[in-house]
Each structure stands twice: as C-alpha cells, then as structure tokens.
Write a structure and sequence with these properties.
Layout: H1 21-53, H2 64-72, H3 76-95, H4 118-123, H5 125-131, H6 133-147, H7 152-159, H8 172-185, H9 191-210, H10 218-230, H11 236-249
Helix pairs in contact: 1-3, 3-6, 5-6, 6-8, 7-9
Length: 250
C-alpha cells in the first residue's frame, strides 16, 4: 500500500449518520494504512534478522554493520536491538488475531495491532535476549497489572533492576514475581526514584569487577554498608557519610 492508494482528504464538517458505502471503503483503506505503518518496524526487524543471520548482505557488503548503515541508515547496535524486538510484535499479533464485535456501522475490525510499541519492546530487550519474547510479554503484563503504567520510563526503570540471566537465572514465575515486587516499590513521580536503583546497579557491577567477583547483590551491598557504618574501629564510612550529608544539606 502506497500514498497513491489513499484518496486526498476532503473536509466534510457536516457529516452525520451512518457511513455510506464509499465512506466504509475509505475507512477500511485508511485503517489498513495505519495497520501497515504500525506493523512496518516489526517487519523491518524481521527482515534485518534474515539478512544478518543468512548473511544475505554479502551480495553487496562485507559486513552486516556496513549493510545496516548504508541501506537501513541504522547503526549496528540499533539494528540489533530492533532485530531482537521484532519477535514480541510477531507473537502478540498472532495472539490477538480475533474479531471485535460489530460496531453501529456494521464494520468489523480485527484486534491484531500489537499492544507493545517499538520503544517499549526495546526497553524489554534485556528480558527478550535472556528468556525470549514470551517472558518479555509476561513481564510487561505483570508491570501493567501492578502499576497500570507501561511507559518506556517505567518499563526501563523496572527491567534494569532485574538480574540478567548470567547473574541469576530465574524461572518465568520467579522473573514475573521479581518484576511485580520491583514495580510495587518503584515510584514514577520522581525521576530519581528510577534513576537511583539504576545507578546503584551500575556501581554494584563496578564493585564486583574491582573485587574480581562475578556478582554482588543489592542485599549484600546494603549489609556491607551497615557493617561499615557501625564499625567504631574504622569509622571512615561513617565520617564520609556525615560529610556527604552535610554537603547535600548545604
């Protein structure tokens, strides 16, 4: 479907009543165009995945990164993010292929539009990469149920607090339970609410690297802080916290 398939918009401010046969056809055509646009990035992601995995880019380019840059105008990281995300859209489209009840105009539509957009699918990519699209959709539905809020910011903040599979492998039930717990304790009104746990996670990973350890959990980190805070023989952590709090208050 191209632009030429759609008629030019015509103002009709006094239109009332049921749609005419011609209007029904135009509405169906417009909805087809909207659906095509919504599906376009899923299709593009799957197309890029084919070109990459089958090495079809070799016809004109030495690497997929060069092909993505020249043909899709995308950097390699962005291309791979979209290639990972498309599976969510494909799975949702297959699930939702059912008809709505007819409306007052006798028009029947299909509920086959993915309910997860491109940016949210991208925010779910860490889950998709570790556990697959089914788990990502389960986490998405859990967060929506727990918070009623499925913005990119909300999803990103919660997903970044969940452990990666290499750090701690969870079952889907454990993963969704963890997501629900984080969702219920993470606020969305203050940007610092989501930013602070993300910063702590990054710093914890850095601490583990410095100590040449695989992982340090947030619980262990808090425990170490508490021990260091009450240590009277080595009060450096306590003194540093006093200085930090004074600077913050001033």
């Amino acid at each position: 479907m191209t632009l030429s398939d759609l008629p030019d918009p015509v103002e009709n401010p006094h239109a009332t009543g049921d749609l005419s046969a011609e209007e029904e056809q135009i509405l169906a055509l417009c909805m087809k165009g909207i659906k095509q646009f919504e599906d376009a990035w899923w299709v593009m992601g799957k197309a890029m995945a084919n070109i990459s995995s089958r090495r079809l880019y070799r016809k004109t380019h030495a690497t997929f990164a060069e092909f993505a840059r020249d043909v899709f105008k995308k950097s390699r990281p962005i291309a791979y993010e979209e290639m990972t995300s498309y599976a969510i859209g494909e799975l949702l489209s297959a699930r939702a292929d059912k008809a709505f009840e007819e409306n007052s105009n006798g028009v029947s539509a299909h509920a086959d539009t993915p309910i997860i957009g491109k940016k949210i699918a991208g925010a779910l990519n860490p889950i998709t990469k570790d556990y697959g699209p089914e788990a990502s959709i389960a986490v998405h539905e859990t967060i929506k149920d727990a918070t009623g809020n499925v913005t990119v910011k909300t999803i990103t903040g919660i997903v970044q607090q969940l452990p990666r599979k290499k750090e701690e492998e969870l079952t889907q039930e454990e993963l969704t339970a963890r997501a629900r717990k984080v969702a219920q304790t993470t606020g969305d009104d203050n940007p610092e609410d989501a930013a602070l746990p993300q910063a702590v996670n990054r710093r914890t990973r850095q601490l583990a690297d410095d100590l040449k350890r695989g992982r340090i959990s947030r619980q262990e980190l808090h425990g170490m802080f508490e021990v260091a805070f009450v240590d009277t023989e080595d009060p450096r952590v306590y003194q540093a916290l006093v200085r930090w709090m004074k600077n913050r208050e001033s």
